[in-house]
Structures are given as C-alpha cells and as structure tokens.
C-alpha cells in the first residue's frame, strides 16, 4: 500500500475490551477521530475466557464504566457471567465505537516525519497517537515442565476452563491459588471432584466483616482512591497477587483450610516434574499463614476505622485456623495419585512485542505516569494499578481513560490548533 493510500486517524486504540471502549467514549466526547482495533470481538474475554460459574468478586455498585454505571436491582450483589457479558455488550452498544473487529495490530513504529505507522492484518494506517488498551493478561503462562508430563494427563489453562464436566473423570491438580486458582478449585470441589491444589503466596480477605462487605468498608476508608504513588509499596504493588475471595452464591470467604478438612489435598508451590514425581516447594504452612495474616490484617484495619469514626457495627473477630498440615509433602507420585488433569492457574504475561517504542523497563514493563509515557504519543490504559486499585477493573478504568484522553487532546491541539479540539 502506498503512502498516499494509507488512512490516517488522530488516535489508534489497540484493544476492544472495557479499557479500549472507555477510551473511545472519551475520544468521542471530545470529537477526536480515532479507530479501535480488536483482534476478536469487543469485550470477548468475558464470554470466551471465563468459566461457567464465574462472577464478580466486587459488588455491582463498583461497576462504573463511563456513561454506563450499574443500574440493576442488586447493587450489593455480584453479577454472574451472563450478566457481566450483557453489561459489557450494552456498554459497547451505547458507546458505538469506530471499531475494527477481527483485525490484529501486528506492528507499530515511529515515522520519521512524526506520528506512527500502524501495520494491521487488514492493511496499514498512520496515527498521531497510540493508546495501548490490550491489557496485562494476554499470554497464558504454562511452565515448561508441562511438556514432560504424560500425554495421558489432560492440561488446560484457567482461561480455557469452563466446568468440571469438560475434564476427564478422576482427580484434578489445580496449580496456583490466586483468584482464578482458588475459585476454580472451589468449583471443582463443590462438584465433588477430588482436588489437589498447589498453593502459592496469594493473600486472602473476608467477604463480609462486622456486618458489611469488606469492599464497602475499604471504600469508606479511601483505599480505592489511593494512587500507586501513595501506596506503601509504590510501583511494587503492581506485582501483588489479588486476594482470593468469591461473590458466588451471594458472596463468601474462600478458606483453603476448610477445603482441606473436607478432603481437598493441599501442597506448596509446584516446582517440577521428573522421574514420575510432581515436586512441590515445602512452603504450604507458610503460604496459608501468610494468607490468614493478610485476612486478619485487613479486618484489623477495619476495626481501627470503626473505632476512630464511631460507626456502629457488630463486635470484631479474629480468624483462627481450622486445619493445619501435619507435614509438608514435597513429592507426589503421579501414577497412582488418581490425577488425570491439570488446570494451570499461574497467570498471564502481557504482549507488547508489536509496539516499537522506548517505553519499557528492563523487565519489559511499560514505564508511565497514570498511563502517560515519556514517549510522546504513546499511552497505556487498563493495566493493573495503572493509577489505583480499580484501574484494571470496571471501577476506575473510565476515570483513567478520561485522564489519558485529556492529555491526548492537549497534545493534538498544540500540534494542530486549526482543529479547534476541546481541552
């Protein structure tokens, strides 16, 4: 395609999830021409990469996409998968973004004369600004040890898990105890499957405490307004594993110790497979204690808030372990264990290899200030803790998108004042 034939837009948004569509909402509000490229369909992750019993772990009232807050009958409840899909689809329909679905962005490079060349599966475009809204959960992580497991063991990643019935009969090893791992382990456990869970250093929190949802308490305490710069861990908070808890059946705690009492087998971190044995780090007791310490620490912070504000609430409590491992199990003979399948729940990696820009640190992570990078014209949106806890969620992604778009509008108006863009 010749230079003259290339279509030019002011802004190209890469990714059509809630982050990309929120960005489109604010670009439309400012009448800035743009295109959104989505390699599948808008918001597809909620329908294509979640299990059947998936639900939100935060109350519905926290769903506040721009121009599209939750307005259903149960603000304190937790939307289930079909309701989430409907909520996102309604948002997309309301925004009516200029989106190219089924189109992948293969390469973005800087042009000598300014702006960017955007190479896509349907041809080339040029743009003054690039907004990366593809998220931080793109490439499923499966360890290389998986290649050495017997072919008789069915293996899937958490994004492929739908329900217990899709797995062969027999025991299931769930590797990882973050939000997905803990909830999938629970889903299998409730279905009567024999579950073996490799537990990592994931924190947990209570669903309800002293008469209210813990999320509501934390909102009152200003936690969700805390920026990454104000957090004690600073940018290190972006590396934190999310707390495991569930909104299932109206919401409840996830207590791995209780599951163990009911027959779930718990181990430390899965580290290797060799000589027919699964090998685990002997850190189960430590990991369970860490999760409980976090649980009680959050509740103690709520106790302090209640004491300082004088809010009336039921009395405090402290979680006491209901089960302790008798001994650490460092190995498990796979043959004879009854395990016939493994669900890998050890996370995702971002995929930014298509972006040729000097915005990444030594670990390959984007360097930015609330999504704005030092590379003029390159912005990010929708990443975990981009600015606050809710940046990668329905709760605050719209506010971050508004901020990013305001900076884009300022740059465009300085470059092309004749357009008369609002700032």
From TrEMBL:
<dbReference type="GO" id="GO:0004497">
    <property type="term" value="F:monooxygenase activity"/>
</dbReference>
<keyword id="KW-0560">Oxidoreductase</keyword>
<protein>
    <submittedName>
        <fullName>MSMEG_0569 family flavin-dependent oxidoreductase</fullName>
    </submittedName>
</protein>
<dbReference type="Pfam" id="PF13738">
    <property type="entry name" value="Pyr_redox_3"/>
</dbReference>
<dbReference type="GO" id="GO:0050660">
    <property type="term" value="F:flavin adenine dinucleotide binding"/>
</dbReference>
<dbReference type="InterPro" id="IPR024000">
    <property type="entry name" value="CHP04046_FMN-dependent"/>
</dbReference>
<dbReference type="InterPro" id="IPR050982">
    <property type="entry name" value="Auxin_biosynth/cation_transpt"/>
</dbReference>
<dbReference type="InterPro" id="IPR036188">
    <property type="entry name" value="FAD/NAD-bd_sf"/>
</dbReference>
């Amino acid at each position: 395609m010749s230079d003259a034939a290339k279509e030019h837009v002011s802004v190209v948004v890469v990714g059509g999830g809630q982050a990309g569509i929120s960005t489109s909402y604010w670009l439309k509000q400012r009448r800035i021409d743009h295109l959104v490229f989505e390699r599948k369909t808008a918001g597809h992750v909620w329908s294509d990469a979640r299990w059947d019993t998936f639900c939100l772990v935060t109350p519905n009232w926290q769903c506040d996409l721009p121009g599209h807050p939750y307005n259903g009958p149960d603000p304190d409840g937790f939307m289930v998968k079909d309701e989430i899909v409907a909520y996102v689809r309604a948002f997309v329909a309301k925004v009516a973004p200029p989106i190219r679905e089924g189109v992948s962005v293969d390469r973005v490079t800087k042009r000598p004369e300014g702006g960017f060349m955007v190479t896509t599966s349907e041809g080339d475009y040029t743009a003054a600004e690039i907004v990366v809204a593809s998220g931080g959960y793109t490439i499923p992580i499966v360890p290389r040890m998986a290649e050495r497991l017997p072919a008789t063991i069915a293996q899937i990643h958490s994004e492929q898990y739908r329900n217990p019935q899709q797995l062969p009969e027999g025991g299931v090893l769930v590797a990882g105890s973050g939000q997905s791992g803990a909830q999938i382990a629970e889903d299998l456990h409730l279905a009567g499957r024999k579950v073996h869970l490799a537990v990592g250093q994931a924190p947990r929190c209570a669903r309800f405490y002293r008469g209210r949802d813990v999320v509501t308490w934390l909102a009152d305490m200003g936690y969700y307004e805390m920026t990454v710069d104000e957090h004690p861990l600073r940018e290190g908070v972006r590396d934190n594993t999310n707390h495991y808890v569930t909104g299932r059946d109206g919401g409840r705690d996830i207590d791995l110790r209780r599951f163990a009492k009911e027959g779930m087998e718990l181990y430390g971190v899965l580290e290797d497979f060799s000589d027919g044995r699964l090998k685990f780090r002997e850190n189960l007791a430590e990991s369970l204690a860490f999760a409980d310490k976090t649980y009680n620490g959050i509740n103690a912070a709520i106790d302090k808030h209640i004491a300082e504000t004088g809010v009336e609430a039921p009395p405090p409590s402290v979680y006491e372990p209901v089960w302790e491992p008798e001994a650490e199990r460092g190995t498990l003979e796979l043959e004879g264990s009854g395990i016939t399948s493994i669900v890998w729940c050890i996370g995702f990696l971002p995929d930014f290899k298509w972006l040729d820009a000097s915005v990444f640190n030594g670990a390959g992570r984007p360097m930015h200030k609330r999504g704005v990078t030092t590379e003029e014209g390159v912005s990010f949106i929708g990443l975990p803790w981009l600015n606050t806890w809710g940046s990668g969620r329905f709760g605050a992604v719209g506010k971050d998108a508004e901020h990013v778009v305001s900076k884009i509008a300022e740059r465009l108006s300085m470059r092309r004042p004749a357009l008369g863009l609002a700032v």
